[in-house]
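FAQ: What does the model actually see?

It sees only this:
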Amino acid sequence: MAFQISIGDIVMRSKLAFRLAHAFTTGRKSAPAEFQEVQNQLYSLSKALDFFGSHTSRASPNRFGLDSRAQGGSLSAMIENCRSTLNHLERLVDKYMVLQGDHTHDPSTSHGKRWRSEFLQNWTRVKWTTEGGDLSKLQHNLAIHINSLTLAATVVNRQLERHVLPKDESSGTSITDADSVLTLSIMVGVRDRQEVSSLCPNASFGSESLETMLFPNSGRLFECRYPSRPGELIQGGKHDKELSKLSLLPTSLLVRMHGRQQLWKLRVSSRRTSRVTTLLLGNVSPSKLVDFESRINELAMAQARRVVSRRVGSMLAFPCVDTHGQPQIAVLNMMCDTRHLHDRIARVDFLANGQCYSQKFIKTIQLLLYKALSEAGESSYKDSGELVFHVGTQSGNEPSSIDLPSRLIVNIDHSNRVAYGPKACVLRVCDVDCVSESDSGQRDQVRAANVQVELSDMKSTNVLLQRIEQLQQGLLMYKLRSTQSCERVVYQMPIEMLTVHNYHLVNATLRLLFNTSTGQYRLVILNASNSVCVSIELPLSFFHHLATTNDTALFLNYPCWISDSSQQQTMLYEHRSGITLTCASDETQQLLVMLLRSVAQGDQILPLRAKNDGPGLMSKQIEQEIRNDSQDLQL
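And it is asked to produce this:
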């Protein structure tokens, strides 16, 4: 079972909804007319739970295009919210109904129930929901449960129907539907150098998990596949022998490279030459980005566990804490190629509070972007990227007792202004937080500083400006697609078909997020593969205006960013003229508008959070140690 609630739990909720509906039916002669709608909704909820259970019982984690942990958490939270509503209603029925005859759970024996007379006189004062709402709020919640369960079951059913894995039984050769397998191109070498060459244009990962591949004597890392007939791939192409010699290193990570072109770097070893080789992976189909990202997360989790078990960090992964003081592991997710800038930095000036600190002898420079993994294994992206200057040693005779900085870190957000400085070959980065670190572990931090970087020539200046802008674009793309550390999920719903701007999204996911720092809302829409993302900032005035109208049309004339990843590149742009959001189903459109209106009405919708049923990254003891040492280890 892929989910964190069993089919037995769903069946029990269905029977409870039916039993409550039957109770309302038997007592309707003495009840107000408003109870008739609740009765009908409870019968519908019972059928929706049966429908949901019958479709999800066939699901398994490997048969979804979405991450099974995230989807399982959302579905279990949906059932949990439904359980809370039904249990509260059951307590009201037990309290305010007179039960005649045997009190059993068989609906056929409940014909003697009736409402208490004092209840019928004061039913409008009863708290019908766990939040203390009236009967209309109960009807509102029941409608949400019914529509959510039906939509979720429909999405799960379509995902199962799309999963096709044919096999040629006569020859024993694995023949795979080309649309069902993640294929990619593999190049050898380092980007921007002449020795980059193609190793295999049509490779796929082996059958074992990448985390398993970190151990000796494991299976194949890559397999070569070649097309046999249109739409079919056969395992065992001409590059298969060379690919069979490649294996992962203990420190291997899939790290995205800078730029619009979609490339990921992976360091591996060759059993044929015993040398470490750098691979560049690309040409990933947009429909397989979710599958590929799950592979990235496999290695990220493996490196995080390595940091926890060995209690030592590196540039690839290190312990840190989030804004709430909870322990995390930061894992490298993206980097920019800065080889051309080595020994090209003449000096760096840090200006803050009317003072200036200058540093020469910059040896190397790095541009890095990290994501953070929580104890439960959930990932989020850091709020800023890092421009790291590695300080070399001065040739003079400095006293050994002086603790000089060895690294200077500039935290760059996507909104920080980067421009040419007052003179040639100078770049200026404004209003950034900076940290200096020494080899002994001493850290000094300066906030809201202006940084000036002087380079040796104009070509290097242009390259650094381009790399910083590419880091900012990558940071913005990840922020748009992900729930940020300061955001909470208000509601998440699957939508079978949705048209927004110039995109027709099938099996999309819509999330409404609340920023706890700014008090603003953000609407995030992702297609099934996460290759298209639409992010819209929604002010409170939008929800209040929507609550005053009966129109279900949604025209959103607010700041909107769109991220579109094709097989070759990623486009990121801001749409300024407003967009229309239209669901193919009228019922789904009405449900969406109803949920958005509930924000203005102050309704409380439970956040959807996945439970942590499996083993976490850290023991409680290690968690406390990370909290205690985080000030020295956090970058």
